[in-house]
Structures are given as C-alpha cells and as structure tokens.
C-alpha cells in the first residue's frame, strides 16, 4: 500500500532587495519549486502557514515531481493547505506555524 504524502509545488523563498534608505532588506516571494531551485534559492517556507519545509527533487523520469512537504507534522495539522488539516474532522481552525521561518 502506498503511503499518502503531502506535496506542494509552490512555496515562499527568501529574497533581498535594496532599500530606499540604503542597504538591503529581506522579503518573501512566492515561486514554483522548480524555478526556485533553478534560481539557486536556499531558504524556503510554506506559503500558507510560514512553517519549515523539506525540498524533494525529482530523481528520475518515473519518480514524483519536485515538491516540498512540511517538516513538522504539527504544521501540517494546522496549515490550511496541509494534508492532516484537510483530513481532520474535528472542526479545527487554521493557524500560523508555531515555529515560523523568519
């Protein structure tokens, strides 16, 4: 029996831009995972809850597409896009991650 896994194909990546007052500031930009990897981005987070995610790259033509999954089950349980949240039947409300990536 195959294990059902959560798969997201877009996430937020950390970028930098020049501030009007000088110097740089960080901001989060939504990108498809494949584009983020092509752009050599290194910091990723869930675009729904801001939680930490793991990147899974496509290893073969027959394998799953490049995607991300929540690192913590607790993030998936309360993220509006998380697999465990979507399967829950207890009427829980979505909330931001308890340990968001900043």
Spatial order of strands in the largest sheet: 2-1-3
Into which percent range does the helicity of residues fall? 10-25%
User: How many domains would you count in the coordinates?
Assistant: 1
* Main sheet: strands, sense, barrel: 3 strands, antiparallel
* DSSP summary, beta strand count: 5
Q: What does the average pLDDT come to?
A: 91
* Helix segment tally: 3
Coarse morphology: flat
Whole-Å distance between the termini? 37 Å
Tell me the radius of gyration: 15 Å
Order of helices and strands: EEHEEEHH
> Strand percentage, roughly?
25-35%
Find the structural class using helix and strand composition: alpha+beta
Which residues form runs of ≥5 with pLDDT under 50? none
3D architecture notes:
The protein has 102 residues and is an alpha+beta fold. It has one domain. The protein is 17% helix and 27% strand. It has helices at residues 33-38, 73-78, 83-87; strands at 10-18, 24-32, 44-45, 53-56, 67-70. A three-stranded antiparallel beta sheet has the order 2-1-3.
Keywords, please?
102 residues, flat, two-stranded antiparallel sheet, 3-stranded antiparallel β-sheet, alpha+beta, 27% strand, 17% helix
Summarize the structure.
The protein contains 3 helices and 5 strands.
């Amino acid at each position: 029996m195959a294990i059902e896994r959560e798969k997201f194909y877009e996430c937020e990546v950390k970028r930098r831009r020049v501030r009007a007052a000088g110097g740089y500031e960080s901001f989060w930009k939504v990108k498809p995972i494949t584009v983020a990897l092509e752009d050599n981005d290194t910091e990723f987070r869930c675009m729904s809850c801001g939680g930490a995610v793991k990147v899974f790259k496509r290893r073969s033509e027959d394998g799953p597409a490049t995607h991300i999954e929540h690192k913590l089950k607790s993030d998936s349980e309360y993220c509006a896009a998380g697999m465990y949240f979507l399967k829950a039947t207890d009427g829980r409300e979505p909330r931001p991650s308890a340990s968001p990536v900043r």
